[in-house]
């Protein structure tokens, strides 16, 4: 059964040990909008927070599962080792460099990475992040920054950029990206670590920053021990449920163990791991985050999918207020 090309990144989900501090950083410092305050559907005793553009468009979501006892991450291979955010142009990147300096955010200087101005930084829990200028970018369109954010819309984050995978055996993941998921390898660039192989670039759909995966092979690192500040999974965009069903059939025929169809209410999903242990999700563009809240009030109240609504009182009692 023929499948359509994956459209690009859908969302990235990471781990925090402190939802309140996490909320402060991603909204007050980064100016992203909290578009959904809900719970981990597999463990509704803890928060699942979604940050995105003005309406939570696919390709703009960075989400966090709260795991209060999570220890610090011991960085290493077989991990999603960097998530980047897109900004409009080089001028916006200069704004962020000055903002980070004023607010004491850990960051590096602006540099050029695979032809684009970029700046690495970290959140308070050590989450490995990067801002990427779209000044010379073409391809998957970005989102629209929320006009009520703490950052002027002119400089706001417009969505997810390249996501980096650091693995011990790159060919294993490269085969999954190209032979199973339909990505194409387009170029490579020098590793910032002496003696390591070049980092390979894969893209899908319309290409550009909203679709790119950087694949890094490292033989000098142990496997990562995830905790607070690590990434749980990378989700990729498929058009709708009909298309997702085709992808489920394709993944089944490939022989990879997978979750099968999962209804996350705001989108439909499939999960599977590649041979290096990277957890991928395929997620539909809809129905979207506004089916249980008005656009103007997204993220203001605790939202629960219908199957958890009967447990609302119990769930609310188990959660610490975020404000």
TrEMBL record:
Keyword ATP-binding: no
Keywords for the protein's UniProt record, in alphabetical order: Dioxygenase, Oxidoreductase
Molecular function terms, GO-annotated: dioxygenase activity
Domain VOC: 8-134, 159-285
Entries under Pfam families matching the protein: Glyoxalase
Classification via PANTHER family: RING-CLEAVING DIOXYGENASE MHQA-RELATED, RING-CLEAVING DIOXYGENASE MHQE-RELATED
This protein's name: Ring-cleaving dioxygenase
Organism of provenance: Rossellomorea marisflavi
